[in-house]
């Protein structure tokens, strides 16, 4: 889990924690320093493997799901302008309409960690 927090990402299969524990760690990390972003890779060495990028900013969360060919954003994302987030101390803005309520973003994260596939708990729009 330290690698995830320090490096800003990890391979899902390397996680020893449950999806619920990971979500709680992300929530605590957001309370300590908001506007952070983390990447979850199903195969870090394969650019066509599913990846989920998650950002938290208090009550807001941001998501990008990569299916190997296309990026997908929440269909009901609410931010009309790009949203500022930080990935391993690097500025990593999320695109317009990628933010949803933080709890929904955490629900998406938990589902992705369980399945390694595009979560079905929200609607997605291809970008």
Describe the structure.
There is one protein chain. Strands 1, 2, 3, 4, 5, 8 and 9 form a 7-stranded mixed beta sheet that branches. A two-stranded antiparallel ribbon has the order 6-7. The mean pLDDT is 95. Helix content is 27%, strand content 29%. The chain has 127 residues and is α+β, with helices and mostly antiparallel strands. The protein has 3 helices and 9 strands; from the N terminus they run αβαβββββββαβ.
Instruction: Calculate Rg over CA atoms.
Output: 13 Å
Number of distinct beta strands? 9
Strand content: 25-35%
Sequence of secondary-structure elements: HEHEEEEEEEHE
**Unreliable segments (pLDDT under 50, ≥5 consecutive)?**
none
What is the percent of helical residues? 25-40%
Mean pLDDT: 95
Question: What descriptors fit this protein?
Answer:
127 residues; alpha+beta; two-stranded antiparallel sheet; 27% helix; globular
Short description:
With 127 residues, this protein is α+β, with helices and mostly antiparallel strands.
How would you summarize the topology of this molecule?
Elements: H1 2-7, E1 9-11, H2 19-32, E2 36-41, E3 51-57, E4 60-66, E5 71-74, E6 86-87, E7 90-91, E8 99-101, H3 102-115, E9 124-126
Parallel strand pairs: 1-2
Antiparallel strand pairs: 2-3, 3-4, 4-5, 4-8, 5-9, 6-7
């Amino acid at each position: 889990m330290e690698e995830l927090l320090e490096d800003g990402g990890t391979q899902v299969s390397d996680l020893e924690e449950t999806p619920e524990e990971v979500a709680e760690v992300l929530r605590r990390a957001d309370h300590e320093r908001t506007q952070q972003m983390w990447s979850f890779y199903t195969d870090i060495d394969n650019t066509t493997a599913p990846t989920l990028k998650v950002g938290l900013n208090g009550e807001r969360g941001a998501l990008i799901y990569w299916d190997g060919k296309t990026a997908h954003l929440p269909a009901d994302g609410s931010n009309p302008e790009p949203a500022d987030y930080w990935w391993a101390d690097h500025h990593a803005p999320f695109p317009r309409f990628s933010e949803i309520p933080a709890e929904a973003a955490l629900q998406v994260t938990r589902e992705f960690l369980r399945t390694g596939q595009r979560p079905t708990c929200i609607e997605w729009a291809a970008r």
